[in-house]
Write a structure and sequence with these properties.
By secondary structure, this protein is an alpha+beta fold. Helix content is 41%, strand content 21%. The model has no long low-confidence stretch (mean pLDDT 91).
């Protein structure tokens, strides 16, 4: 049964805390929820149209239900309770319908094709008239899981709107979530969306967007850490473009050329992930020992290792120098070669220090956010819980 009111959903971004690149070679990586979120509002309409507005990338698209109904026979085999990955023929049909080039990799094109596929497959043959607006705090293309947060939010909103999963807001809590079984279904539909956007994703980003907290990823297996602390960080985007594919290939080349040198480095990164996991559990358990100095040491060691395997960059060196001059500790997160870095903020750090660091990083031409990791996964919100800028963006239809 379709719900007859508007619904507000959000999902977090993602950063790799430790283990990037080593994970490609079978080592452990820790991925954590980033409390920069993607917000979605879905509301019923009465004019037989479907509207999707993505103000971050300047897209607003309107279709008549009668137009979308022409796609129903094409996707007939996809109308199942379980997510079904689209075939190349399905994707080509959707791209032709939307007027996109068959081989398009444009961010906006892929976002609309993902929406069309999830909307049609989840809603089935009886297509509802809806208006959807999506607004994100996450920059695109920065390795922070922005596409996964989009897919998770879409899946959760459409499944709830169509009654395929429960409406947590009926419980009247301030921020509500779904059952574990329902979250698993959201995650699988979101993974389908990620396949449309990325082709062959690992599944880590959508899992973090769904479950939040922290996840372990090793040898293709993803498992959730039961409890993790929320850690305050600075997230900095150097805005230096990089190719993940090239960086991964470079690490592999070094490993093949110097196996006796590089293998121990990757094993050490694995050990850092294990030690960090242990420290996080100690913090949650309320251990009286101050573990932040250990977390800082692990960050420093890992950053040096990442430079050794060839994924550093002068912009990241500069970032680490700026934060170190104020007694803070930073490492790259993700592919490296530019991109983003995280800086741990101890609970007792002086706010004036944080502001000074943010100013200096901004003066370097970097983008900087003060936020947290270990963030909750996909959630439903009351309208009153959303800030004015989020409300403004989501009320754009």
């Amino acid at each position: 049964m379709m719900i007859e009111r508007e619904l507000f959903v959000s999902a977090p971004g993602k950063v790799i805390l430790h283990g990037e690149h080593a994970v490609v070679h079978g080592k452990l990586a820790l991925a954590v929820g980033l409390n920069l979120r993607t917000f979605l509002r879905i509301r019923p309409c009465k004019d037989n149209t479907v509207v999707i507005h993505l103000p971050n990338i300047g897209i607003k698209q309107i279709w008549d239900i009668s137009q979308l109904q022409t796609l129903v026979p094409i996707l007939e085999g996809c109308f199942k309770d379980e997510p079904t990955s689209p075939s190349p023929e399905h994707l080509d049909a959707l791209k032709r319908f939307a007027g996109f080039a068959t081989g398009s990799k444009d961010t906006g094109d892929l976002a609309l094709i993902t929406f069309l596929y999830l909307y049609l497959c989840i809603c089935g043959r009886d297509l509802p008239s809806v208006g959807i607006a999506v607004w994100s705090q996450l920059p695109t293309g920065a390795g922070l899981g922005s596409s996964a947060a989009y897919s998770v939010s879409l899946a959760a909103a459409l499944l709830t709107f169509t009654g395929k999963i429960s409406d947590p807001m009926q419980e009247c809590s301030e921020i509500s979530r779904w059952t574990q079984t329902e979250l698993d279904l959201i995650n699988r539909w979101a993974f389908t969306g990620e396949k449309i956007i990325h082709g062959n994703p690992s599944g880590v980003d959508n899992a973090v967007g769904t479950w939040g907290g922290a996840l372990q990823y090793q040898a293709g297996k993803i498992s959730q850490m039961e409890r993790v602390p929320t850690l305050q960080i600075l997230l900095t985007n150097t805005q230096v473009p990089r190719s993940t594919k090239v960086l991964v290939a470079g690490v592999k080349e070094k490993l093949l050329k110097f196996p006796d040198i590089m293998s121990p480095v990757l094993s050490s990164i694995h050990a850092i992930s294990l030690e960090c996991q242990h420290i996080l559990q100690e913090i949650v358990a309320g251990s009286p020992v101050n573990h932040y100095s250990v977390l800082e040491e692990l960050i420093d060691i890992n950053q040096h290792h990442l430079n050794v395997i060839g994924v550093g960059h002068p912009s990241l060196d500069r970032l680490c120098q700026v934060t170190a001059s104020h007694g803070l500790h930073s490492k790259l997160t993700g592919a490296g070669g530019g991109g983003c870095a995280i800086t741990l903020l101890r609970p007792d750090v002086d706010l004036s220090v944080v502001e000074a660091v943010k100013r200096e990083l901004t003066d370097c031409g970097f983008q900087c956010w003060q936020t947290s990791i270990g963030a909750p996964g996909v959630s439903v919100h009351h309208l009153s819980d959303l800030t004015e800028d989020i409300n403004s963006a989501l009320n754009s239809i």
